[in-house]
Amino acid sequence: FHSGEREEKCIIEDVPSDTLVIGNYKVQRWDIHKQDFLESAPGLGMFVTVTTPSAEVLLSKLYGPQGTFSFTSYLSGEHIICLQSNSTRFVAFAGSKLRIHLDIRVGEHFLDESLVQAKDKVNEVNFRLEHLIEQIHHISKEQNYEREREEKFRKTSEETNSNILWWAIVQTLILISIGIWQIKSLRDFFISKKLV
């Protein structure tokens, strides 16, 4: 994505609890002379801030023009990941455009192929099995989180349907009472004018 030099850009990532999140980024600065983005942005860093669903700051750190950040969520929900350059220019003069390449991986665990090749076949199979078991635990955790979200959504829907039903009943009672009151008022009016 593109960003202004002093502009803060945030993304929302829905993460289950106890999940590792790894983010890789690279910043490129616009060069007016070349009319293209430079391959790197020397001297430019990025403030990375991660906020939990309960508005607690989980990570706030300054990195270089290219880097990797990681955190482990302890709450499930929408985590806000914000990136802002550390440019020291005033806002009025900080007109340079930035291109930010961002790759976020949620709950991924990578196999280290060099370790696998260094061990014998039995250890390799054992290591791969441990990796698969770890991935199964992550998938199970992800499914439980989605199940909790679905249950919460279902409860909210049922409460809304219940409220709509009661509101319809109240509206009907109000309309019936107004109708009865109008009939009584008209009857009293006709009796007082001796039209009936």
UniProtKB/TrEMBL annotation:
Any Gene Ontology CC annotation: endoplasmic reticulum membrane
Major subcellular site: endoplasmic reticulum
UniProt entry tagged with the keyword Membrane: yes
Annotated ranges, domain GOLD: 8-106
Keyword terms, alphabetized: Endoplasmic reticulum, Membrane, Signal, Transmembrane, Transmembrane helix
Keyword Cell membrane assigned: no
Membrane-protein topology: Single-pass type I membrane protein
Annotated localization: Endoplasmic reticulum membrane; Membrane
Source organism superkingdom: Eukaryota
Record field: transmembrane: 164-183
PANTHER family: TRANSMEMBRANE EMP24 DOMAIN-CONTAINING PROTEIN
Similarity remark: Belongs to the EMP24/GP25L family.
Protein name (record): TMD11 protein
Organism of this sequence: Nyctibius grandis
Gene: Tmed11
